Amino acid sequence: MQKLEGLLRDYKDGRRDLEEVLAFLRKLPYEDLAFARVDHHRRLRRGFPEVVFGEGKGADQIAEIVHAMKVFGTNILVTRISEEKAEQVMRRVPRMSYHRGARMLSLVQETDAGRVNGVIQVLCAGSSDVPVAEEAAVTAEFMGNTVTRFFDVGVAGLHRLLHIWEELQEASVYVVVAGMEGALPSVVAGMVERPVIAVPTSVGYGTSYGGLAALLGMLNTCSPGIAVVNIDNGFGAGYMAALINQSFNKQPASGRPEKEGAKR
After folding, report:
1. DSSP 257
2. Confidence tier at 10 by pLDDT (50, 70, 90)
3. Domain with CATH 3.40.50.1970 in the chain
4. I need a labelling partner for 131 at 20 to 30 A (CA). Which of 21, 59, 86, 257 fits?
């Protein structure tokens, strides 16, 4: 968005010629790389650029997609990418940052959106759930949100969650990550007044069925105000939390006092 506006202003003021503008616009709505069609138009259409899913793609393919996005001038986020693959990409595309805990690559080129008011809280039940929780947290932060993390606060030690009850009241929206039986989102939703996004993980023993037990438990919650994403989908939860936080902070709830840490 920032690059397009600058290009059009430069053309209007005579600092760019028509061919330069047309060369840029030809890449809209997408750029054909033969093996991939990079959706440059998504930033205009959705407010956030296309995100690259790294799993199943080779480092060369990811690097080529990322290079096209870098040239176009958008922010870049790559999910589910191993450290080895990330290092290969970073050698070809400088200035990228690798988030080891979340298995993500990022590069910020546009800063026009600025920070979003409000706080997103990301909680996870156990340390084994941290990679999925980090994926959610890094996604939300990359989209301009302030994120607070509370890890290893599962229901097997409920006192750990009760200990942070005061802090829990400060968020605009919550991402709650859990494996095993997936009970944590129901407990959190019973303690707070704002939306909870539940993320089942594939963590657990045999009858957890790779996260299916947690998924079904979350879908069958008796606590209202919970939405559930797919198994291990931290990215999807972080993205949704960012959208909710943006909407929430554009329209403050009438008649309610502002909460410390969630100012609008």
Report:
1. P
2. confident
3. 116-250
4. 59
